[in-house]
Amino acid sequence: MYISIQQNFIAFILVIVSLLIAEGIAHIDFTNGNFLFHPIGAAILSYLLFGFKVFPGVAIANTLIGYFLWDNWFGNGITGFYGHVIIGSLAPVVAILIMKLFHLSEFFKDGKLNFRHILFLVILTGLVNSLLKFFLFMGVLKANPDPVVFLSTYLVGNILGGIVFIYMAVKILPILIKK
Known about the structure:
The chain is an all-alpha fold and 179 residues long. Helix content is 74%, strand content 2%.
């Protein structure tokens, strides 16, 4: 398996753009998730298109935005790095591997997206991402978040943001590529 710089760059751009959109439409707070968190969809789409070899592109994009735009993850430093870079970049990988383990990973069928499997992937990724961040943040953050609010906002935001990003990318990117 080789690491493609071009594919990593495309994944990087997808995630950076989605993070900038997320920053522009909502305040990001560790105790309450963003109700439309597009970056999870960008990471999922990157892994589906190019495979796991684009992990560096996804992780670098998450790192740059978290460190520079979100002021070192809102002062949470290494915890923010683990939560949003490591967990945020690996949650789609874990979800894809789980789906492959149970033979639910037919994401493309006859050259088209199998949206039912992708929808399940987005839901599973949202669940993995939300639970891992919850367990990481509960013992470390200065302000302990309410578990119900934390899990519901992160889960809903990951699922809605993932679906919206992937749907929009599937509809818009072919139009842009043709031009």
